Amino acid sequence: MSKRILILGGAGFIGSHLVDNLSKNGNEVKVIDNFSTGKIENLSQTKNKVKITKGDLRFLDFVLKNVKDVDLVFHLVANYSVKLSSEDPIFDFNSNALTTLNVLEAMRKNDIPIIIFTSSSTVYGESDKFPIPENTKLKPISNYGASKVSAEMYIHSFSQLYGIKGLILRYANIIGPRSEHGIIPDFVKKLKEHRKRLLILGDGKQKKSYLYVSDCIDASLLALEHFNKSFDVFNVGSEEWITVDEIAKIVCEEMGLTNVKFEYTGGDRGWLGDVSKFLLDIKKLKRLGWEPKYTIEESIRKTVEWLKNH
After folding, report:
1. Measured between alpha carbons, how far is 111 from 125 in angstroms, rounded to an integer?
2. Which range marks the domain in which residue 156 is found?
3. N or C: which end of the chain has fewer CB within 10 A?
4. Which residues lie closer than 8 Å to 59 by C-beta, 6 or more apart?
5. Which residues fall within 8 angstroms of residue 128, CB to CB, at 6 or more apart?
6. Does residue 249 sit in helix, strand or coil?
7. CA 161 distance to own-chain centroid
8. What is the pLDDT of residue 13?
């Protein structure tokens, strides 16, 4: 059965892939984006099928007028950078937490029953137990993680107070076509400029989990398909993890570069608030019948291949 779906941040990296998927299946899809990082080119395949509105969710008047007349809301709007959140915590809070509260208020006033919120592995902070299950205590070490926790908690309170159903998806690092931020685009850009040396933030030993964007979309939609509670949380990631040094070697291989000298900024973190190790427990999602189609190495190679040509 087709639905009326609003995708907030639908011109962004992950959001545009979600638009591609949902607009194919007879759904009526609307997109809101302020185009600060999202691009209209990301919607080139679907722009004739979807209604696109430019606007900023930090302004309640705009949200009340435009978040309405739909069956469910995918909320992907956020500050894209953990690093930026330490430099400008107010911007980060407004981008992550305030936007969520404004959306929830519009949903309450306009009788929209379901929100799907893209959260982050950063909400867990530093764990000493891997993989990290969904019931782990939330202890973020970055402003970004803290603002994501705040958004999650508002969704929970609105689910209890007003009956708005909230599905929280805590993403690992998502990579793939249209991604412009993060370690792989950073490495590709640096290696295009300097083919014999690569500056790596931290010590290269940071170890994290990555997931290809199409796997992320499949997992998210499967979680929604099985969502039947007032509030639920799923980790969305891979059962593998990889070091920064290993990623650097794969990127160099894919770019046909040899004898690249790795240089390091030092320390066990790439930036303030960086979680140096994380691996999400995805057993809850796997019980629904999902698992990633691509390994981390395949995902990295496919991402580099796209970035080389764009």
Report:
1. 34
2. 4-174+210-236
3. N
4. 102
5. none
6. helix
7. 27
8. 98
pLDDT along the chain (310 residues), means of 10: 93 98 92 96 93 98 98 96 92 97 98 98 96 98 98 98 98 97 97 96 97 98 98 98 98 97 96 96 98 98 95
| Residue 286 belongs to a domain | no
CATH code at 36?
3.40.50.720
Helix, strand, coil percentages for the chain (3-state, nearest 5): 40, 20, 40
Cα–Cα distance between 302 and 305 in angstroms, integer?
5
CB 298 within 8 A of CB 238: no
Say how far apart CA 92 and CA 145 lie, in whole Å: 10
pLDDT on residue 26: 85
Q: What is the pLDDT of residue 47?
A: 84
Residue pair 259/267 in contact by the 8 Å Cβ criterion: no
Crossing angle for the helix pair 183-193 and 296-308, to the nearest 10 degrees: 50
Cite the beta strand spans of the chain per DSSP E: 4-8, 28-33, 51-54, 72-75, 114-120, 165-171, 173-175, 197-200, 207-208, 210-212, 231-236, 242-243, 261-264
How far is residue 59 from each of residues 34, 74, 149, 151, measured CA to CA in Å? 11, 18, 21, 16
Cα distance between residue 113 and residue 162, in whole Å: 9
Residue 171 half-sphere exposure toward CB, CA atoms < 13 A? 23
**CATH at 262:** 3.90.25.10
Catalytic residues: 144
Residue (of 295, 190, 172, 183) closest to 245 by Cα position: 183
Single-letter code of the amino acid located at 207: K
Residue at 79 is within a domain: yes
Tell me which residue of 138, 129, 142, 207 sits closest to 170, measured CA to CA.
138
Query: Which whole-number Å values give the CA distances from 296 to 96, 108, 169, 246, 274, in the listed order?
Result: 28, 40, 20, 11, 20
* Orientation of helix 13-23 relative to helix 213-225, angle to 10°: 60
